[in-house]
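Please check the following.

. . .
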Amino acid sequence: METLLAIAAGLSLVQGGQAFCSRRWPLSSYLGMTWAFFAAFAATQLLGLRAGNWILGIVSFLALREYFSMVEIRLQDRLALFGAYASIPFMFHFVTTQWYGMFIVSIPVYSFLAIPLLVSLGGRDPEGTVFSVGVIDFGLFLFVYCMGHISYLMSYSIWMAAFLILDVALCDAIHRLLQPRTWPGWRSLAAGYGLPLPATVLLTVALSPWTRIPVRHSVVLGFLIPALVMMGRHTGNYVEADLGVAEATVGPGRGQILDNLKSLLFAAPVVFHYLRYFLDLP
């Protein structure tokens, strides 16, 4: 418990120092997102799972709102947008109660069925219906459902969720600081996997006494997470490009949350289901 709280306190000091100095530090926005996750872990440790879920739910809401602000949604789709936002407490409630069966189908079954109905009820013009349904369901899946896997992993063990965030943050930091942007495609992909690999394996194994993940599975996850981060980043880059998000213009409300979360899009659900299957978690 003390180690987790120390990490959260350290990140809080960094965030406070950045605000006091009124200047951007390297990886400042990404550190802010990492701080939000560890604030959720600390709240769970001190106040219970519901408190941590409130913080992660707020992160999901902010990510979904930022995404919706960058796509062309019809005014008549506002009822479906309300349904999408309402899906956030709907899903996190099942995480809090640890009702796995309902959690796993809450978004991809019930919300995905409700959104087309709400789109059809929202207006009389059918043109653009398929686009609206796809846009809203896509945002729900990426920025709410994938985040829910981190929350459910936190319900099993706060350290399991913390190791995932630390490994992904390590991959991102190494990628953003060390990988040359001028490398051709295949070399860039190889570097995106190879550069953080030794660090993620060592970190995952080092955290094994806290996470209670057997060493052999820690090694596998150390090799797996950089690949998942690379896939999430590659997919997220294409989504950002389609939304018109450029690196020079990324900022609050202009793709910053999406840019910081893209590395978790593949890692969160895959690592969760790996641990649940191989560790026989309930």
The first helix runs from residue 2 to 21. The radius of gyration is 19 Å.
